[in-house]
Design goal:
single chain, Rossmann fold, N-terminal domain of TfIIb, 2 domains, seven-stranded mixed sheet, four-stranded antiparallel sheet, 11 strands, 28% helix, 33% strand, binds S-adenosylmethionine
């Protein structure tokens, strides 16, 4: 289960990894989206609050929900370092994005940086969209991003080999080398088992090898469109990257901005 996954060493390495800290374009994109669609905002799979903090700092009211206690602990620490006004605008809670009822409506629900790809079962995906729709105020928007699937990563054995992702030094002096490999392709289920391997040299010379092993669900463009329609949404815009370019063959992302088709009362069934 994804909660156990992130309740691991990964929470301590997440923010400082260049793979995460280098993602600035999505922060700007979501900041612009709140300017356009308004707050309050609900962020599903908020993790350590990378986007959450930025939106609170930009003057927006935001609630971040995540399954992982350890990721949320990080977010709580980061919130404590914000200016008092920003701190008061930001709420954090533990919960499953496929099963929550906050008794509150939001102008914007966002799912940034792939939490949706942790929902391996169609039932969870549909339930998540149902929950999101029920929490949207009239005229509100849902925005989610997933990566555009690279067909080679569905089957090419070259990806079974360990490849370097990044190397960096943490503020407290640990040298971190991250490599990645796909362990197994499950094309019929649109899933890959993936390992991110952290080779760490501590300042006292101690070496450590930690493995973040997880299963990711990949999606296709029209599949998400169908899922959104099934969840009572209508796609308002789609982008292939955070610069708002259209989805093309080589686009790295698939970003969906959707409004509700009906104000309320829709049920989805499997
Ligand atoms: C790649 S991180 C993204 C974090 C954050 N949105 C960001 O942009 O940095 C994925 C997050 O999704 C969370 N997650 C996975 N499955 C979840 C679920 N069912 N409900 C809530 N959060 C979930 C994980 O705990 C993790 O914090």
């Amino acid at each position: 289960m994804a909660s156990e996954l992130y309740d691991s060493f990964i929470a301590d390495y997440y923010d400082e990894s260049p793979v995460v800290s280098g993602r600035l374009q999505d922060v700007a994109f979501y900041r612009d989206a709140v300017r356009e669609f308004g707050d309050p905002v609900l962020e599903l799979g908020c993790g350590t609050g990378r986007i959450t903090m930025a939106l609170a700092e930009a003057g927006k009211r935001i609630t971040g929900l995540d399954l992982s206690e350890r990721m949320l602990e990080r977010a709580v620490k980061k919130r404590a370092a914000l200016r008092v006004e920003a701190r008061e605008r930001l709420h954090l809670m533990q919960g499953d994005m496929a099963r929550f009822d906050l008794g509150e409506k939001f102008r914007l629900v966002i799912i940034p940086f792939r939490p949706f790809q942790h929902l391996l079962e169609v039932r969870q995906q549909v339930d998540c969209l149902d929950c999101a729709r029920k929490h949207l105020a009239p005229g509100g928007r849902l925005i989610l991003d997933v990566f555009q699937t690279d067909a080679e990563r569905m089957h090419d054995p070259v990806h079974l080999r360990e490849m370097l992702v990044t190397e960096y030094k943490t503020a407290d002096g640990r040298l971190v080398r991250i490599t990645e490999r796909i362990v197994a392709f499950h094309r019929a289920e649109q899933r890959n088992d993936v390992e991110m391997i952290f080779s760490i040299r501590h300042p006292d010379g101690r070496q450590e090898r930690l493995v973040f092993a997880w299963t990711l669900r990949y999606f296709f463009r029209y599949e998400i469109e169908h899922l959104l329609a099934r969840g009572g949404f209508e796609v308002a815009a789609e982008y292939g990257n955070f610069d708002r370019t259209p989805i093309r063959d080589d686009s790295p992302e698939m970003i969906f901005v959707a409004g509700t088709r009906q104000a309320e009362g829709r049920q989805t069934t499997l």
